[in-house]
Amino acid sequence: MTLKPVGGRPEAVDIMLEKGKVAVQRTYYQSRKEEGLLPGPRVKPGTLAALDIGSSKVCALVAQLSEGGKIDITGYGMALSNGMRRGVVVDVDGTVRAVREAVEKAEDMAQTRIRGVTLGVAGTHVQSVNVRGVIGITRGDKEIVQDDVDRALEAARVDSVPQERQIIHVLPRQYIVDGYDGIFDPVGMVGNRLEVEANIVTCSATSLENLTRCVARANLHVETPVLASLASGEAVLHQAERELGVAVADIGCGTTDVGIFDRHGLYHAGVIPVGGEYITKDLAVGLRTPLPMAEKIKIQHGVALVDAARADDYVEVPDVGGSRTQKIGRRAIAEIIQPRVEEIFGLIMREITKSGRDGVLPGGIVITGGTATLEGIVEVGQDATGLSVRVGYPEGQGGLTELVRDPACSCAVGIICLAAQNLGYTEGVTVGGQVSGLFGDLWGRVRGWVKQSY
Fold first, then answer.
1. How do 256-262 and 265-272 pair as beta strands?
2. 160 falls in which pLDDT band (50, 70, 90)?
3. Which of 51, 89, 228, 293 has the fewest other C-beta atoms within 10 Å?
């Protein structure tokens, strides 16, 4: 068997039958870090890619869309990263390396090339505001057309966004025609007055530009940015929960992204500057052990509820110098973890109160993200908030379902779902149509600036 290296790493693995035996043939192509046009297979029709850049890891997903709109996850890649902090780039080179590694892993698994990605945006710089736009219908027949809808959304956006902010979404929640509310598509109706209630999501323009630069240096272009909590909600929420009113909390490493949804869609988005890394730091200080060991203890032996930890269950914990170890009970570990988890849920409740939805969320709180798998966290959350709490897992996709059915992958899976909706393949939360059209010009300017820079 002859291998034909083009220079770089293996791109795909082809399985062949050769004289009754299974033979594996690898083809090679240029590494993503090298300059120029990247050889290898072209992007398959109907291919989507998602990129979730967090404080501790970068997750890349590749999906294939069938004609019927079914989404099959075909590639998954994850790389550790410390180039981001609370949604802001603090190390460009480190972020670029992690993006390349994660994307290359996903490409190898999917056996395809990625040219563009839908990018999740999170961090303490993300904000959302509910606005209202009103216009009059002046044509003689009084019939509402798409141009009227666009004008109403544009009216809602006027004076709502400071110059240093970048619009990510303009999400219409409902339309009102001559005082009649609860309308989701007014096109074709007749009226004198058209109102729209919308949620505008913005982020720091410089933070988005820095993130876009990192993606561009990995030889990728950002097709569309999407709000991380909107994506997480798309992946884990049930329709019944949306109808009642529900909050989703993606508890990541450095932050907790909160999104509040009702039957009209996203009502409020906020970011809490506390996440799982604070639990790790608490354990490192309390147990006098290095941070990597504290993270390992949290994942393998961590318990969020003291009453759920056995008093006779002990863990070997090395000290900071590594010269000796000590036996620490899991109950003692839980006594360190539980107060921090209670604090996180208290901050989630503060965000719910800030939105004005305190007491009107029968759907409760759905937690997701890597920290959501901590044993006993549901019970602590229910006691701290007085609401029902469950762990949300991404569902409803085909392909590598078991590999990505992890709360840590919820945002990336949701990004894929929103990207599919943007192309009109599936129903649900709309990111395309009027929404993409309104911020398309703004995002086009950012994308053009990046292309000129690189």
1. antiparallel
2. low
3. 293
Would you state the pLDDT for residue 8?
37
- Quick: pLDDT tens for 2-26: 333 333 333 333 333 333 333 333 3
**Closest alpha carbon to 128 in 199, 234, 231:** 199
250-280 burial, b for 16+ CB within 10 Å, e for fewer?
bbbbbbbbbbbbbebbbbbbbbbebbbbbbb
Q: Enter the tokens of residue 134.
A: 């009103």
Q: What is the pLDDT of residues 383-401, one digit of tens each?
A: 999 999 999 999 866 666 7
pLDDT for 32? 55
Average pLDDT over residues 224-234: 95
What's the chain's average pLDDT? Answer: 83
Residue 358 tokens, joined: 């305190």
CA atoms within 13 A on the CB side of 150: 11
The residue count of the chain comes to 454
**Residue 402 pLDDT > 70:** yes
User: In whole angstroms, what is the distance from residue 119 CA to residue 349 CA?
Assistant: 28
Distance CA 237, CA 241 (A): 7
CB neighbourhood size of 21 (10 A): 7
How many C-beta neighbours within 10 Å does residue 306 have? 19
By CB atoms closer than 10 A (0-12, 13-18, 19+), residue 20 is: exposed
Q: Which residues have a Cβ under 8 Å from the Cβ of 187 and sit 6 or more positions away?
A: 144, 145, 146, 149
Query: Which of 230, 237, 48, 216 is closest to 122 using CA atoms?
Result: 230
Question: Binning pLDDT at 50, 70 and 90, where does residue 31 land?
Answer: low
